[in-house]
Amino acid sequence: MTLTRRDFLKAAAAGAAASTLSGRANSQGLRKVTFMQAWLPDGSNMFVYAAKNKGFYRKRGVDLDISRGYGSVAASQAIGSGKFDFGMAAVAAGVQQIAKGLDIVHLGTVNYDSTMGIAVLADSPIRTPKDLEGRKLGSTVTSGEYPFLPLFAKNAGLDLSKVHRVQLDAQVRNRALLTKEVDAISSFAGSSIPPLAAQGVDTRFIPYSKHGLRLYGLAVITQSKRLAEDPAVCQAVVEGTFEGLAYALKNPEEALEAYKAELKEVAMTQAGLETVRIGWGMYALTSLAPEAKRGLGWQDPQTIKRHVDVVMDYVADKTDQRPDPEKLYSNRFVTDVRMSAADWAAAQKHYEKYQRLNG
């Protein structure tokens, strides 16, 4: 293989960063880094726990302390204010909080479809968005998909004024659908569908992304100040995270075992494990997007710009400031973690059985 000057310089820079972090680790012990998830341990973040268990952070000089999250907005706020060093949150939530003045930069996208949409039971007569008219739609107003419901409706030709809107707490949303208190719920497929599927409940899902509203899902985030002042630790966390993602994509059952080993305090029932397995399968599909062939986590500049437009038009307050799209993200550390063509094809084949759950 011929080593170009560009390859040489890139390798030298990476080696210098790794040397800096390793030197700190050797002299002071592993670098302690805090990491906040977007939500509870589940299929969407299984690979982060697997990455920690398999030593992907430790070998880069990082001791990652993982905390549960309380939603992407809360995670963005906690990380943007510096209460946590790194974490994951939905890209749209990060853009929203940047518009409010928080210091956030997206270091790599984990999955390229947020899985926002409308869930119905399999026997429901609702098959298109238009079919929601005259029926009850349950929503949690603090859930990430809720602010984008009007845009989805506009794109899909749905008159929301003809829909009976019911506000539901997130903890009872699925139950309201099961008991037919409502005819449909707005949600993230990756969150609402796995626990239902694990119980043998058959569903159908109408994704926002099939109606002109494709938003990126979770991304690894930190503060732009940290990226500028401590790129070595940013590189270590990003590379460890996406090595974990690649490992889980290629070895889902081994990754699930690593997840279980890392969460010994969690009393996992068989249904709970199946929920994680299904959730991971659904999220894995959305990680296998064309962008990721350039390197797991790679973010398309034009797509990031569209996120800014959508957030400012449909979510932002009047006092929020439009962010500069170029400052929202960095692809600096994501191009080295790749999967071979054979691994990519094998993963697509393995996870295709989950496609119907994503809609």
Keywords:
single chain, 359 residues, alpha/beta, D-Maltodextrin-Binding Protein, domain 2, five-stranded mixed β-sheet, disordered N terminus
Structure commentary:
- This protein has 359 residues and is of the alpha/beta class.
- The protein folds into two domains: 5-113 and 216-358, 3-Layer(aba) Sandwich (D-Maltodextrin-Binding Protein, domain 2); 116-211, Periplasmic binding protein-like II (D-Maltodextrin-Binding Protein, domain 2).
- Helix content is 44%, strand content 14%.
- It has 14 helices and ten strands.
- The protein has helices spanning 5-28, 46-53, 72-80, 91-99, 149-156, 173-178, 189-198, 224-229, 231-250, 252-262, 270-287, 301-314, 341-351, 355-358; strands at residues 31-36, 62-67, 86-90, 105-109, 116-121, 136-139, 164-167, 184-188, 203-207, 218-222.
- The strands form two sheets. Strands 2-1-3-10-4 form a five-stranded mixed β-sheet, with helices on both faces. Strands 7-6-8-5-9 form a five-stranded mixed β-sheet.
- α2 (46-53) crosses α9 (231-250), α2 packs across α10 (252-262) and α7 (189-198) packs antiparallel against α11.
- It is globular and about 60 Å long.
- 47% of the residues are buried.
- Residues 1-20 and 22-27 have low confidence and may be disordered.
Q: Rg from C-alpha positions?
A: 20 Å
How many strand elements? 10
Tally of distinct domains: 2
Question: For the largest beta sheet, what order do the strands appear in spatially?
Answer: 2-1-3-10-4
Secondary structural class: alpha/beta
Mean pLDDT metric? 91
Classify the beta-strand content into a percent band: 5-15%
CATH-scheme architecture of the largest domain? 3-Layer(aba) Sandwich
Main CATH class of the largest domain: Alpha Beta
Helix content: 40-55%
Reading the helices and strands in chain order gives HEHEHEHEEEHEHEHEEHHHHHHH
Uncertain runs: 1-20, 22-27
Instruction: Give the terminus-to-terminus CA distance.
Output: 43 Å
Major β-sheet, in short?
5 strands, mixed
